[in-house]
Write a structure and sequence with these properties.
The chain has about 130 residues and is mainly β. The chain has one helix and seven strands, in the order βββββαββ.
Length: about 130
């Protein structure tokens, strides 16, 4: 990514960081467009910090509209990031981390990596 940014450009990336096996509640929301209403859920199924692996389940259920009753579900294997693993990844990259923000709070306060969370936004600077 650094090769595609202007020098000094800021790059925002959302990466959850967890230093324990606490299970966050599922993220749930609904969206509506042109009479179709869909309920979404994203949930952690399993986390293995030693293997740096997580399984997540995404589910979309059509509540109204022409496809009412349809359910779409997938399981996603993802990297499990701890604060130390994320710091090491950034240190080995051309980027510099400027800040981390809590994306779960609408005011987006700056937080320390060790506070963790699934909706963390990381502000990186390109070389």
């Amino acid at each position: 990514m650094a090769d595609h940014l202007e020098p000094g450009a800021h790059y925002l990336v959302q990466v959850g960081v967890f230093d324990n096996d606490d299970r966050p509640p599922p993220n749930e929301w609904e969206a509506e467009r042109d009479g179709t209403v869909v309920r979404f859920e994203w949930a952690l199924v399993e986390r293995d910090l030693s293997a740096r692996r997580e399984l997540h389940r995404s589910r979309a259920q059509v509540l109204a509209g022409p496809r009412k009753g349809h359910v779409f579900e997938e399981v996603h294997e993802m990297t499990a990031w701890t604060s130390s693993a994320w710091r090491a990844a950034i240190a080995s990259s051309p980027f510099t981390q400027l800040a981390a923000y809590d994306g779960g709070d609408r005011s987006r306060p700056e937080v320390e990596l060790e506070h963790g969370g699934g909706l963390m936004w990381h502000e990186l600077a390109a070389p």
